[in-house]
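Bit of a strange request maybe. I'm writing a small parser for structure token strings and I need a real example to test against, not something I typed by hand. Could someone generate the tokens for this chain?
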Amino acid sequence: MRFLLFSLALASATPAAAGPPQLLLRVASFRNLDQVQKGGEVEISVTVPTQPLTYRQRAPKSFQSSAVVDLSILKADGTAAWQETVTLKPPVLSDTTISIKNPLSFLKRVNLPDGTYTLRGRIRDQYRSANGETTVEQPLVVAAPKGAAFSDLVFLAKPAVKTTGEGVFNRGGYLLTRSPAGFYGRGADNVFFYTELNQLPAGRPVRLHYHLAAADGSAADADAAPITPQEGRPTPVVGQLPLGPLPAGPFTLTVEARDAATKKVVATQSQTGERSLTDYAPAGAAVPR
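Reply from user aminoacidic:
Good idea to test on real output. This should exercise your parser:
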């Protein structure tokens, strides 16, 4: 999973002092189940901090901001493989001096053939012309693993829930509430996550080990019960680890799979997140209207 993060430094609520709008993108790639057209299923998690947006008065004691997010995936030749525009309108505020303006987040899922792409995101503040636009880009590679491998790791705001439903928030038989920008705020006790294990021989059990580490050396470890890969499809992996020993700041989660018989490492995957002991985390991603 690739991660692009802009500083979340607080901006003044007044339009004159506000900085440019901010756009946070997380991308996770999974293999699709289509045996005819080989490719991947790419999930784009978008988080927009509303603090830097301009708030316009709509009525007495009624203020609201508005932003437009343009997303596009470009092929190597520069042509668009996919594009979409989403308009975001945060909740109405009665007072723009309120320091707590929750970020907005949403999720998009795109099927792509194997190849090399560029993800481009652009956000425009609807109520500001000067310094009211930000564009970010990051490389995106969709390719089949050459051997046993995990998909990208996805951080969750709460435990995955088994379900038979289908939708943008469902994967591998679970309902997944993603943690916006991989952020865990005040009151969060655990890191929850989801990934998939690909191209392992069916019926051959593997053991999973989870390792959570911070820059200062603080760490937490856990072992999960053995899992048995499924025939012809990815094997879902859900887990959690306590945040207790970790300080505020960035952390890295590593998931390791070992052959249950030989103890040999067959696959490993890592992802970075962020913990705060003072700020509350925004709600999980929601489908924009």
